[in-house]
Amino acid sequence: MGMFATGRSPRNIVFGRGQRQSLPGYAGQLGQRALVVTDERMGAEADFVAMMDGLRTAGLSIEIFDATPPEVPLAAIEQCVAAGRAFGPDIVIGIGGGSCLDMAKATALLLAHDGSPRDYFGEFKVPGPVVPLIAVPTTAGTGSEATPVAVVADSDRVLKVGIASPFLIPHTAICDPELTLTCPAGLTAIAGADALTHAIEALTALARPIDGQTTHEHVFVGKNGLSDTYARQAISHLSDGLARAVASGEDMAARESVMLGALLAGMAFGVAGTAAAHAIQYPVGALTHTAHGSGVACLLPYVMHFNRSHATASMAQVAEAMGVVVARDDDDANAERAIVAVETLFGEIGIPRDLEALGLKHDQQEWCAEQSMGAARLVKNNPRPLDVAAMRTIIKAAHAGRRDLLDAEI
User: Fold this and answer.
1) 3-state secondary structure 195-226
2) Where are the beta strands (DSSP E) in 6-74?
3) What average pLDDT score do residues 338-357 get?
4) Residue 2 counted as domain residue
5) Distance between CA 206 and CA 140 in Å, rounded?
6) In this predicted structure, what is the pLDDT of residue 77?
7) CATH no. for residue 347?
8) CB within 8 A of 67, min separation 6: which ones?
């Protein structure tokens, strides 16, 4: 099979210090009535107030919804949609962390197509374009400013659920690393670790057989030429800047590297998809009530070890991107160096080293293994085939903090 590449991304991507000031120009191209979706903390920030003043000065009418909670529960989406319908926007602007951007995506969807978020759970359920979206991230992690996914919390389900459609990709992404300067060290670490996990899982994902229908039948098509390029660059930027950004939040160069890495990681996994670390995190997060980024990052070294025999060359590329290559002609040794480098970086920034430290009880492992298999879009993306027994093995090793327990199963 020859090279295959595909990409889906915002129509406009603008990155750099001070680029939040470009918001009025991009918004004015799309409409004159903007529903701005954010949270209470961001709504009180001077930078946010200045952006709103810029929109008003440019002649836009704005309505601010600043009650986005973590996890994006359906009841909050309904409140935001109600505010939007009363105002009648022709553009939705999400400003904040991943939850704010996902709230903006879900709101833009329902303003265009009505119904409930439940009507759109899964892939390709969105019937057409949504209200035009602009995404302005203030953390560097989820990459939601460039992805086709909105993750929400349904009170009728134990696990969070995703809406996946290319129609959810924002029209414009404005990434200003100065907006991350107030992000505390702990959140910087968790968000950045999430982004690195996105990039590594995208780069090591299964390369699937491709035909003319693949991109029409799958939102996430597996690793390909474009996603690999984005993922390698993301890994390089994140491994270079993340520890420095956590240690010194005022290090502007580090903040730039991390935010660019998170954006590129979003562009990589937004078409390639993620895999086992994300599949297992959903039940682990539901039981431990811990941050998504902490969970996927805690699991990543164990998932990499499990997958190494089926993604050796890709993991060697991880080592190269992180600058830890041992020998150019020894992919297996380089793959191990990549895993160690990930463990070292995550240890340095305070990611829990095992699931027990994350709060998962010993008797919860079996339930997690069973529930992990429910994330079909992630399971099918893993480079090594997964079943309940495989999930059980990964979770056991990750709970004990012992990668060597995986060796008996490989």
Assistant:
1) HHHHHHHHHCCCECCCCCCHHHHCCCCECCHH
2) 12-15, 33-37, 61-65
3) 97
4) no
5) 26
6) 96
7) 1.20.1090.10
8) 39, 40, 76, 79, 80
d(CA 49, CA 111): 25
Same-domain status, 363 and 242: yes
Say if pTM beats, i.e. exceeds, 0.85. yes
Amino acid letter for position 403: R
User: Domain for residue 53, yes or no?
Assistant: yes
Which residue type sits at 349?
A: I
Count of alpha carbons within 13 Å of 11, Cβ hemisphere only?
A: 11
- The C-alpha atoms of residue 372 and residue 127 are separated, in whole angstroms, by 28
CB 164, CB 220: distance < 8 Å:
yes
Other Cβ atoms less than 10 A from the Cβ of 14: the count is 16
Residue type, 301: P
Determine the Cα angle at 141 with ends 145 and 42, to 5°. Answer: 75
Block residue for tokens 């930027």: 237
Among residues 145, 180, 215, which one ends one of the domains? 180
Host domain of residue 99: 12-180
Contact 99, 68 (CB under 8 A): yes
User: Mind listing the pLDDT tens digit for each residue in 282-339?
Assistant: 999 999 999 999 999 999 999 999 999 999 999 999 999 999 998 888 999 999 999 9
* b (16+ CB within 10 A) / e for 188-205: bbbbbbbbbbbbbbbbbb
CATH number, domain with residue 73: 3.40.50.1970
d(CA 67, CA 198): 28
Over the stretch 222-253, which tens digit does the pLDDT of each residue have?
999 999 999 999 999 999 999 999 999 999 99
Beta-bridge partner residues of 135 = 94, 173
DSSP secondary structure of 292-340: HHHHHHHHHHHHHHHHGGGSHHHHHHHHHHHT--S-TT-HHHHHHHHHH
Task: With respect to residue 1, please indicate whether it lies within any of the assigned structural domains.
Answer: no
Look-up of token digits 């949270």: 39
Considering the domain architecture, whether residues 250 and 126 belong to the same structural domain is answered as no
- Rounded distance, CA 80 to CA 107, Å? 7
Q: Are residues 193 and 298 in the same domain?
A: yes
Burial 363-395 (b: 16+ CB within 10 A, else e): ebbeebbebbbebebbbbbbbbebeeebbbbbb
Q: Note whether 36 and 167 are same-domain residues.
A: yes
